[in-house]
Amino acid sequence: MKKLFTLLILLIGVYQTSIADVRDSLVFKNQNVIVGEIKSLDKGVITIETDYSDSDFQIEWQEVEQVYSKQNYLITLMSGERHNGSLWTYDPTHVTLHLTSGDSMKVRIEDIVYFKTYENDFWSRLSASVDFSYSFTKANNFTQAGIRSALGYVASSWSASAGYNLIRSNQDEVEPTRREDANLNYKKFLPKDFYVPANYGYLSNTEQLIDVRSTFSAGLGKYIVHTNDSYFGVEAGVSYLNEVYTTEDPKKNSMEAYFGAELNLYDIGDLTLLTRGTVYPGITEGGRWRVDYNIDTKYDLPLDLYVKVGFSLNFDNQPVEGAGKADYVLQTGLGWEL
């Protein structure tokens, strides 16, 4: 009986050791340890799933001193380098990346700005969000409804994203107003935090009498700042513009240059801020220039919900006759993200 009891204890110990070998772990600066499945590091926050919690833990990356995981991750460094591999801390000052190529490299933990488990399935690389807004005023039967949505996909050497936004307003004795825009964006990552962007933008609004405005652009970009609390990138290139108006004015086709900048701040608690501005000086239409500007602030809530406030502006110094030079919209809404 005593031998049987000893054997059971040994088997349990071997089982627990084998389980521990496949689990990830984080060691914090205060020497606390958490064990589970490390999913991602994004915008200065690391996400880990444990067996004893209904929801994932989200922890500030700056509080982590050591990380241990044998999973395969897509990893981005502050220098702009991108790698595939696992993470393991052998000394307190560095994390060793064991790359899928068979090589390994040491980096400072603060130099790691992004990683995510890299699976072969499509869904693990996908992100999505959608939010809705609605308002009603009885005095003049004013109603306004809107939707803002985004979809993203990240691969080892490129990323793609899409967005769709719509707002409609109706009011007694006033013509209905509508603003609709969509975008498709692709980035091919290059060394040293350079990238090649290719973008498509769609706009339709009643304020500027635009039935369809399609913009195709491509160029070269670079992240000037890329850290665990923010990034700032700039890009420039050329674009092709096609416009169809709601009036009798003939449609326009023209070439433009473009210069853009994007700033994302995410180390401000549960609040994030993303803003982007692009200037389009005309090439074939001398003297014409346009501006597109967007800013979104998001406050995270439990259960993957959030509250978002967004502002969009379109400016054209040479609109068609009868149209306004500027169109802007301010939207607030409650949303959910995947």
From TrEMBL:
Pfam families xref list: DUF481 (PF04338)
Keyword Signal among UniProt keywords: yes
Keywords carried by this UniProt record: Signal
Cleavable signal peptide: 1-20
Designated name of the protein: DUF481 domain-containing protein
Source organism phylogeny: Bacteria, Pseudomonadati, Bacteroidota, Cytophagia, Cytophagales
